[in-house]
């Protein structure tokens, strides 16, 4: 095999490998979550609409949810505020969840983050961000057990 043939085979392999890796990183393990009418936030059940969600069984950190709270009686009083909320990026095709914008709004107090469920998985908390107009986003993130202090 001469050098030109080797380079051609290597580039073909590299292209195929890159496409497969891209597919597995962005599509393979994600599953759409069924439309929900209610969410459990700590011990409060909340009515929601416009629900979109994705999750994966391959990692506890892949949950992303977008929704609007419709429950007029829902009161955020008594909910535990979450320290250092850090929404994780969603795949590019799940466009309702913009982690950078959510984080910016949390830092500028346009939205408030609450603990939805402590230790849902080992070292992972479920966090929810709520806006005054009822728009909400939920994700999972590492808690103090596995993060640098």
Question: What would you note in describing this structure?
Answer:
- Strands 1, 2, 3, 4, 5, 6 and 7 form a seven-stranded antiparallel sheet that branches.
- The chain contains two helices and seven strands; from the N terminus they run H-E-E-E-E-H-E-E-E.
- By secondary structure, it is an alpha+beta fold.
- It has helices spanning about 5-30, 100-105; strands spanning about 30, 40, 45-55, 65-70, 110-120, 125-130, 135-140.
- Strand 3 (about 45-55) and strand 4 (about 65-70) form a beta hairpin.
Please tell me how large the radius of gyration is.
20 Å
Instruction: Label the overall shape.
Output: elongated
What's the overall average pLDDT, rounded?
A: 90
Q: How many E strands?
A: 7
Order of helices and strands: HEEEEHEEE
Tally the helices.
2
- The amount of helix comes to 10-25%
| Low-confidence region ranges | none
**Class inferred from helices and paired strands:** alpha+beta
The biggest sheet amounts to: 7 strands, antiparallel
N→C terminal distance: 55 Å
Strand content: 25-35%
